[in-house]
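General statements about sequence and structure are easier to judge against a single worked case. No coordinates are needed to read the tokens, only the vocabulary itself. The sequence in question and its structure tokens are set out directly beneath this paragraph.
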Amino acid sequence: MMGFEEWVAQVPESLKRDPLWRFRVYPKALYLYDLAWQDCRHLMGDPRGRAVAHQLIRSVGSICANIEEGYGRGYGKEYSYFLRVSMGSARESRGWYYRARRLLPSDVLRSRLALLDEIIAMLAPNIQRQRGYRRR
């Protein structure tokens, strides 16, 4: 499995030049999506895992998609809203990973849950910061 730094090295420069890339949680969310993509391949091999795979890839994709959309709308309450949606998707993804625990290797499950915990912990203070943001 490709580690985060190795993954970053293969990300197109156009994405890394975008100011959004400096929001540390965003690259982590994109990395998680690539990992989930691989995990879903594994889940799709079992009929019981197919429904989980569909929900998992949707919820993991929603984490970065909401960060992207919120960032594009500027600062303040609206951005805070999209970050909250992103956090909700991260929590949902954590639940889907837990439900897939019988079909994924235990080291993969631990790694994904830890990454999701990191993403959630990074989103929380940014939500608070955006709520307090006032245009000058």
